[in-house]
Design goal:
Chain A: It is an enzyme of class 1 (oxidoreductase). The structure holds 2 protein chains of 2 kinds. Chain A is an alpha+beta fold. Chain A contains 20 helices and 16 strands. The longest helix of chain A has 28 residues. By secondary structure, chain B is α/β, with parallel strands linked by helices. Classes of the chains: A alpha+beta, B alpha/beta.
């Protein structure tokens, strides 16, 4: 494993050296076949060389995102015949070349990654997706499937000129069975719309995340999105009962079962859950949805130290077991950030600042019973010194304002300036050590904040700085990944690998495992047209 | 000086309201119930007055089914000293509530009653005015600022009216109803939730207070507002003008 990692680093260094060359070629030919993501050094060299309008290159420098590699030359470039074919197939309105639309679709919501695709397609049926892929495969046109484009690792935007297949028009709910709670719908359904549809029938989605207003279920499934309810309902590998996917050659694989139990052969649907659109495009999904329980309680608590948070989690699992539905934590620095940058957010505690905060949510069927149970647990934890202060939401409005603090951290970070985001799975007892280590390494140069899904052992480590800076970046990577690997953690708990971490996979997976993944990729997508440059390391997947 | 605050248990502000299938009312089964937001503001104001040393006791009053006790506990956890629960099974209309409050005033003898300006379930906005009328007390409705003068036994109330602020001076005892911008209610902290458990809640029935709950009002039918139709995207100005002329008939 170490050997492979070293190999990759060397390749990376070599590519760094050749970056100047790539850049020059781009300037002269004005073509888009070199990497789009410009590093700070590029714009600096531009200024030095007298290209006055360096400011028009407004790519932000991200260190890890300034990955320098070339477009896979095996892919064709789009021509007018291709466009006419798609217009014939989908109709004029679903073939989009409008620059404003493409500008938005080429860029992720954090404005970290940007491609230069010239075409966006909006299929309305599985058959259309199949026809598109069949054609692209025969023409060797690379594609990027796109849902709500809310990903954090650059998985949902083109890297170069890949054709964007936007799934938003496939947004029909196909069936809902009130008896079993099984929902079958198309991939482009927006999560929040599904939530409100189910709400009318007395059910909920087994996942909930901050991006619910934009993200689509197909994207959720393709990235195996986690979120706030995982501690209660488990991951999508458990909740997705079946799906329909289209392979690179246009074959439609119908695995759209609605059974809880089905042990007939290899359960292939799992290949499409979390493979980030690199093995096929998910077009339909069947999901097991739990009934909506009427009694939801939320407590916002203050803890003296991280050890108390851990101990509180252990106790909560034991004493609130059947009603515990979320256990989240944030540190003092996260709270500070939210209070500074978000309007209308107030600290639930009047007194001095605390070091850690924990949100505990319970969901059950009997209001007075749940309430009593939660109160008794919290009071005994307070007497035992695990909690130094706490408030319980008395109505939904108060509950939303507590959630706003936790869910608003990402937004506050964006407003605070440059941010380096890491989404790590770690053993719970070690989790916060990394945050403290990073604080030592970075000192005054950047703010290190830690928060996340403590109940799932998932840390969101964020480093906030006034601007992106190679010096800061060098202090972060590869240290964060090495530390995580050393403690047998995962370098991507729920965000996926995308473009950002495709080359980092070896920190969490053995070479043999990655090799097998690569073989599967070759089997399902021999030409590698599906979401290229992502998920798997470039050394294995590119040529 | 004692302050009495009326608090009402209503369907939570954030819950999507559903009409019962027989159209007799709103579905409350298996629905989250909370304290009316305006009542929270009323209670918060009373607590602030007490904390500034101008009142000695805050009594929270609620009327309705047994679960009103939960709402009262919330009030006690926010900081009210005592609770009073008038247990009544059926629907209570503003005049009945005002009559019950009047009877309680005779028992409790507060110098000030603070209520929310209205409850978010029926939006009546009548109880405060009615109780002031029945007691012949001064009233300051829709208060956005309240200042008490203990020496002169005066309450100065600012209220938001069309085009500005109106300032009233009320002789105590008085009735004040609260508007949204008066204050931001506090959260119930764990230590206060614990304390609230041992605070007394006194129970009455309307009969004990000599109030007849029978009302002259009768709800005939409750229906949902008509659904909003989906919009359409037009491709040209000509089309818009055509639609405005021939469909909407506004030009």
């Amino acid at each position: 494993m170490i050997k492979l990692m070293d190999k990759w680093r060397i390749t990376n260094r070599l590519l760094n050296h050749s970056s100047k060359l790539i850049f020059d070629r781009r300037l002269s030919a004005n073509s888009h076949n070199s990497v789009f993501r410009s590093a700070l050094e590029y714009s600096e060299s531009l200024v030095k060389r007298g290209f006055g309008n360096a400011s028009t290159i407004r790519y932000r420098c991200f260190g890890s995102e300034a990955t320098k590699f070339e477009r896979n030359a095996a892919f064709s470039t789009l021509n007018s015949e291709d466009v006419s074919y798609f217009k014939e197939l989908l109709g004029e309105k679903s073939v989009i070349q409008d620059e404003d639309v493409l500008l938005a679709a080429n860029e992720d919501w954090m404005r970290k990654y940007r491609g230069s695709s010239k075409l966006l397609l909006q299929p309305r049926t599985t058959n259309e997706v199949s026809q598109i892929l069949k054609y692209c495969n025969s023409r060797l046109l690379a594609v990027v499937p796109q849902g709500g484009n809310t990903g954090l690792v650059g998985g949902s935007v083109p890297v170069f000129d890949e054709v964007i297949i936007n799934m938003g028009s496939m947004n029909n709910i196909i069936t809902f069975d009130k008896g079993s709670g099984v929902l079958v719908c198309e991939a482009g359904c927006i999560l929040e719309n599904l939530v409100s549809f189910l709400d009318d029938h007395g059910f909920i989605m087994p996942l909930d995340l901050g991006a619910k207003g934009s993200c689509q279920i197909g994207g959720n499934v393709s990235t195996n999105a986690g979120g706030l309810r995982l501690v209660r309902y488990g991951s999508l590998h458990g909740n997705v009962l079946g799906l329909e996917a289209v392979l690179a050659n246009g074959d439609v694989i119908d695995m759209l079962g609605t059974l809880r139990k089905d042990n007939t052969g290899y359960d292939l649907k799992h290949l499409f859950i979390g493979s980030e659109g690199s093995l096929g495009i998910v077009t339909k999904v069947s999901i097991h949805t739990p009934p909506k329980l009427s009694s939801v309680n939320l407590a916002f608590l203050a803890c003296r130290d991280y050890f108390s948070c851990q101990k509180l989690l252990r106790e909560a699992k034991r004493k609130l077991g059947e009603i515990l539905s979320a256990f989240e934590f944030l540190d003092n620095q996260s709270m500070d950030l939210v209070l500074t940058y978000l309007e209308g957010v107030r600290n639930p505690f009047s007194s001095s600042m605390h070091n850690f905060y924990v949100l505990i949510e319970t969901t059950g069927s009997e209001e007075s019973y749940d309430r009593e149970k939660l109160e008794a647990f919290l009071l005994s934890s307070m007497e035992g010194g695990l909690i130094s202060d706490g408030v319980i939401a008395q109505d939904i409005n108060q509950a939303s304002s507590f959630w706003r603090i936790r869910e608003g951290i990402a937004e506050a970070l964006m407003k605070a300036g440059a941010v380096y985001k890491y989404d790590l799975s770690l053993p719970i007892e070690k989790m916060y050590d990394l945050v403290e280590k990073m604080r030592q390494r970075l000192g005054e140069t950047a703010k290190v904040i830690g928060y996340g899904h403590l109940g799932d052992g998932n840390l969101h480590l964020n480093i906030s700085a006034p601007r992106y800076d190679d010096m800061i970046f060098a202090q972060i990577e590869p240290y964060v990944y090495e530390w995580t690997s050393e403690h047998r953690g995962s370098i991507s708990a729920e965000h996926g690998l995308g473009l950002m971490k495709a080359n980092k996979i070896f920190y969490s997976k053995s070479p043999k495992t990655v090799q097998l993944m690569s073989s599967i990729k070759k089997l399902l997508d021999p030409n590698g047209i599906l979401n290229p440059y992502k998920v798997l390391p470039h050394s294995l997947s590119n040529h | 000086m004692k302050i009495m605050v009326a608090i009402k248990r209503v369907v939570d502000y954030a819950v999507k309201i559903r009409v019962k299938s027989d159209r007799t009312g709103v579905e409350t089964n298996n629905v989250k119930m909370s304290m009316n937001p305006f009542c929270e503001i009323a209670l918060e104001e009373a607590l602030r007055i007490k904390e500034s040393g101008l009142a000695s006791e805050v009594v929270a009053v609620s009327m309705g089914p047994a679960q009103c006790v939960d709402t009262l506990r919330t009030g006690l956890a926010m900081g009210a000293d005592r609770g009073v629960h008038v247990e009544a099974a059926g629907q209570l209309y503003p005049l009945t509530v005002a009559k019950i409050l009047k009877s309680l005033v005779e028992v409790e003898k507060p110098a000030l009653i603070i209520l929310g300006k209205q409850a978010i379930d029926d939006d009546c906005n009548q109880t405060g005015q009615m109780v002031a009328g029945l007691l012949s007390w001064a009233q300051g409705t829709f208060a956005s600022k309240v200042v008490l003068d203990k020496e002169k036994q005066l309450a100065t109330v600012e209220r938001e009216v069309d085009g500005g602020l109106e300032t009233l001076e009320l002789d105590l005892p008085a009735v004040i109803t609260t508007d949204l911008r008066l204050n931001q209610p506090r959260y119930a902290t764990l230590p206060n939730i614990m304390k609230a458990k041992s605070k007394p809640i006194k129970k009455y029935t309307p009969q004990e207070l000599n109030v007849d709950v029978k009302s002259d009002l009768e709800v005939i039918q409750v229906t949902e507002p008509p659904k909003r139709k989906a919009g359409v995207i037009l491709s040209s100005v000509e089309e818009l003008i055509d639609k405005l002329k021939n469909e909407a008939r506004v030009i």
